[in-house]
Amino acid sequence: MALNVVIASPEVVPFAKTGGLADVAGSLPHALKRLGCKVSVFMPLYREIREKGVEMEATGVEVTVPLGRRTLTGKVCRGETDGIPVYFIKRDEFFDRSYLYGTPEGDYFDNLERFTFFSRAVLEAIKVDKLGVKADIIHCHDWQSALIPAYIKDIYKNSFPGTKTVFTIHNIAYQGLFPYYLFSYTGLSGKLFSMEGMEFWGKINLLKAGIVFSDIVTTVSEGYSKEIQTAEYGYGLEGVLKSRQKHLYGVLNGVDYTHWNPATDELIPARYSLKDLKGKKACKKELIKEFSLKIKTTEPLVGIISRLADQKGFDILADAMEDIMKLDIGMVVLGTGEKKYHRLFEELARLHPERLGVKITFDNAMAHRIEAGCDMFLMPSKYEPCGLNQIYSLRYGTIPVVRATGGLDDTIRDYKGGLGNGFKFREYSKRALVEKFKEAVGVYKDKKAWEALREKAMKEDYSWERSAKRYLELYDSALGTEATAPVRAKK
Ligand code: ADP
């Protein structure tokens, strides 16, 4: 019988996205379906989904969620993505807003209420049994849906006796921390607010609830699953993760090559493949024009597409920029996020108007054009749970220059005279970054060597199938339906 999998995620491509989580929650359901699972997706109905005109219908299912002294109702709408049902939880008071989690000035003040409501509404919607959704597994993502495992172990125990939960951490730095006085909103038993439960230095920690109460915890690369068990990367949760080590797994994100493939990509000016790379040249020319750069087409063009956040390594990049810009290169940056980085990149663009182009916005089509038009892609991250752009870059023949951390370390092998698929430095410093960057520019000047490297990169395969199979093994293991405990995936 088909395994019934419910994916609960605060963002899902193609409906709403702020980062890689949305790509994962958008692709994994399809990959699981190809493996024979029956998948349903749940997410909040944000304003942007309505503004996009996403087709959906009312299901007639209304959920009731107690939230502190109030009892709130929400509606469930049904849409779909390529044959997979997507259930949108509608309560305009919480989700009809300009942003998903907060404005550039800061998080929304009522995020605990918003995502408590979402998490509980998902369970209520399944429980009433009118949607025809069965849940052998509920696969939850990040702090916004992390209360679901706690509910299933506590007040929904009897409603979901056979259901197991898998919780995926996409970024441990975002934990969903809230003051204790809000705990009553969750409706959970008081005993769950303890050191062994979801208490964290006197506060509610939603991510910790997911880690502690789920049957299986995963994170998005093998490397990151080890890193977060150390004080340097664990953001205070390293001890809890160590205590769950036996149930903690790293599963590398896959890539949806139907969206990210230069041979079929409708969002780029010209298509290309390994057999015929003329289109890549055309994409580069167009990109230089689009960003009004004054560089020669023979000079290397470097791309950055990123949330502008501390984790992404912009402090060492800022220090390195003077040295980097001396190397006769062009650079294009697409990003949005923290104000201090908006200012930093705008200032850098003023200093290097001919060679550096910056767009402070979120623009998926432009992200595709940058992947296609650049020669190199830079990710000097301080930490990177998985990272998707370096994997997209490989397929677009845009050579990644990365710091060896988390998923970047797992997917990119250093050049080393022709052995690797990119360039990788380890020490988190301006010096190491500049040195590696210079090496990349040096190899770029050797046309034969660069072509060989590009060929190797474009042949790499990070499709979802392998990762989805791994999740399936873990679902089976949570349900106790496999013959033996899963063997950890080999790197
Ligand atoms: P994170 O989840 O930490 O933001 P990932 O590399 O895992 O980083 O995923 C980022 C995703 O968001 C990629 O698909 C990337 O192309 C996209 N992205 C990030 N910033 C932008 C932007 N400003 N415009 C368009 N896409 C963006």
Beta strand count: 20
- Sketch the major β-sheet: 9 strands, mixed
**What is the overall pLDDT average?**
96
Which regions are unreliable across 5 or more consecutive residues at pLDDT < 50?
Answer: 483-491
The structural class is alpha/beta
CATH architectural arrangement of the largest domain: 3-Layer(aba) Sandwich
Indicate the proportion of strand residues.
15-25%
Question: CATH class of the largest domain, please?
Answer: Alpha Beta
* Apparent shape: globular
Oligomer: single chain
Number of domains: 2
Structural Rg: 23 Å
- Name the ligand types: adenosine-5'-diphosphate
- Helical element count? 17
- CATH topology of the largest domain, by name, is Rossmann fold
Question: Considering DSSP H and I runs of 4 or more, what fraction of the residues is helical?
Answer: 25-40%
User: Order of strands across the widest beta sheet?
Assistant: 3-4-5-2-1-8-9-13-14
Describe this protein's structure.
- The chain has 2 domains: 4-254 and 464-479, Glycogen Phosphorylase B (Rossmann fold, 3-Layer(aba) Sandwich); 278-458, Glycogen Phosphorylase B (Rossmann fold), CATH 3.40.50.
- The chain has helices at 20-34, 47-51, 92-95, 111-127, 147-153, 206-213, 222-227, 238-243, 278-290, 314-325, 339-351, 364-373, 389-395, 406-411, 430-445, 447-459, 464-479, and strands spanning 4-8, 38-44, 57-67, 70-81, 84-90, 102-103, 106-107, 137-141, 164-169, 177-179, 199-200, 203-205, 216-219, 248-250, 301-308, 330-337, 356-360, 376-379, 399-403, 423-425.
- The protein is 35% helix and 21% strand.
- Strand 18 (376-379), helix 13 (389-395) and strand 19 (399-403) form a beta-alpha-beta unit.
- By secondary structure, the protein is α/β, with parallel strands linked by helices.
- The chain is globular and about 65 Å long.
- It is built from 17 helices and 20 strands.
- The strands form 4 sheets. It has a 9-stranded mixed sheet with strand order 3-4-5-2-1-8-9-13-14, with helices on both faces. A 6-stranded parallel sheet has the order 17-16-15-18-19-20, with helices on both faces. A 3-stranded antiparallel sheet has the order 10-12-11.
- Bound molecules: adenosine-5'-diphosphate (ADP).
- Adenosine-5'-diphosphate (ADP) binds at residues 19-21, 23, 305-307, 334-336, 362-364, 367, 386-389.
